[in-house]
Design brief:
Layout: H1 2-5, E1 8-9, E2 27-31, E3 38-40, E4 42-43, E5 53-60, E6 64-71, E7 73-75, E8 86-92, E9 101-106, E10 108-110, E11 113-123, E12 126-135, E13 144-149, E14 158-160, E15 173-174, E16 184-185, E17 187-193, H2 195-212
Parallel strand pairs: 4-12
Antiparallel strand pairs: 1-3, 2-17, 3-13, 5-12, 5-14, 6-11, 6-17, 7-13, 8-9, 8-12, 10-11, 13-16, 14-15
Length: 213
């Protein structure tokens, strides 16, 4: 049983990773996964002291409408997607589950990954933190884990186990405490400039053409 309740799974790393691709349309944060390296990020409904989240940050430089979010996962159950009671994510203003929540998201598990299709969420320029997890019991349904990325875009990722069941306290802490080196969590986020921004660009373009006439 302890094999499943250790919050980190590490195997020798190979072929790691690129970082953030941004600028232009769409805006993309792409932190690809490392094979075999993952952290627990699950609401264990039958073992609440072990319920935990991973969190990682991203930064946008202008107002953006978020469209999709994919969290790259590692699944230990044969058919984990069918065992989930919920698949959820939060966008927060800080690396702590107690920080202000900007959005509560609900998605689906596709293969090993968590996928969120998002409508109507516009974020202003700034730095935000993503937290994601599945909700299901451990004993009957085993464990889903969030894959790590061999990037460090902004701050390194954070692990938070509010119930303290893993023995690391109840406060969030950087994942480098759990293993050698700093890493991000693996995810891909896509966005486009918010409608008001696009309108401003269009107006600027019209003005430029008038000046050239």
């Amino acid at each position: 049983m302890r094999r499943f309740l250790v919050p980190i799974v590490i195997v020798p790393l190979a072929g790691a990773a690129s970082g953030v691709a941004s600028g232009g349309v769409p805006f993309v944060v792409d932190q690809p996964p490392i094979e075999g390296a993952a952290l627990a990020s699950q609401d264990f409904t039958n073992l609440p002291a072990y319920s935990c989240w991973c969190l990682d940050d991203f930064t946008i430089t202008g107002s953006m409408a978020i469209s999709t979010l994919r969290i790259f996962g590692l699944e230990e159950a044969a058919d984990g997607a069918s065992l989930n009671l919920d698949v959820r994510a939060r966008i927060l203003l800080g690396p702590d589950l107690g920080a202000t929540t900007v959005a509560d998201l609900h998605g689906t598990q596709v293969g090993e990954d968590l996928v969120f299709s998002i409508e109507g969420l516009v974020l202003d320029a700034g730095t935000y933190w993503i937290a994601a997890q599945v909700v299901r019991p451990f004993v009957s349904s085993q464990q889903w884990l969030w894959r790590m990325s061999d990037t460090v875009n902004g701050a390194e990722a954070v692990f938070h186990n509010p119930g303290g069941g893993f023995g690391y306290g109840t406060a969030p802490f950087p994942i480098s405490f759990l293993e050698d080196g700093m890493h991000d969590m693996a995810f891909r986020l896509e966005a486009v400039p918010a409608p008001g921004v696009l309108a401003a660009f269009a107006m600027a373009g019209l003005a430029a053409r008038r000046r050239r006439a």
